[in-house]
Amino acid sequence: MSQYQRLLLIADPQMRHSPALQRAAALAQSTGAALHILALVEPFATLPLLDKSIQEQTREDYLQERRDWLKDEVALLQSKGIQVTAEALWTRQPLKEILLHAAEMPADLLIKDLQHEPALKRAFVTPLDWHLLRECPVPVHLVSAAANPLPLKVCAAVDPAAPEEERNELNSRIIATANGLALQCNAELHLLHAYDLSPAFLAEAGTATAVCVDMLDELRQSLADAFATLAERYGVPAERRHFIMGPPIRTLAEFAAREGLDVLVMGRVQRKGLDKLLGSTTEHMLYQVPCSVLAIAL
Question: Which of 17, 20, 7 shows the shortest CA–CA distance to 113?
Fold first, then answer.
């Protein structure tokens, strides 16, 4: 049985046949999952300045435009044998509506087009995609491109250096999700860990050079052993295991581009305090990798 029974797609605001729509349709057709399309319409800033009757008519016109578009999309998808429903909602709180729909369906996967936000804007306003990564109760698939609507290469990015309990649970979820997706799509499954020992090197800068090098070698070997154990457990062949040294964000982005990945599966955790303000590796990764990201919650 597929790990996906109910898919929730957040429709593109511009009513395009977007990468997320293409990915959602391909997954629904491949897995037999039911697909629900949610089109959210947010009031524009100057709407309250209009006469009350004009506001109501404007609201209805916008919603009807979305309903007409959704009707055509539903008919097209149903002609392909996909079980699909759709709705258009007027809301000032898109995050709240998305979270409610994801929880109440309940959805097995939330699919949405990745929305690129400028760094300056992100400094003052937390992007909707970041909010979803932090708060959504189900896995979040943010699609940046769909050259292959059905993924051909799926990579699980794991962290064998995480604390034991967190490592076992989150890494297992990441690999199981990536493996399930790869099997369903007949795609290649890759396993990746990008490690950066420079913080450890700096921490030991006061020790003798030979001792420091030995400690770093031991640390690297410990990570390599843990990574190999994960790979063996899920039967990932040697040629699809990638244990690479370098800063995580840059290394994962370069690897994704070099290998032509379709989906990078990563973990996400609840952020608090300064960590929440600055954002996680997964959140910053959204704007660096050339492929789509599927984020799994701890």
Answer: 20
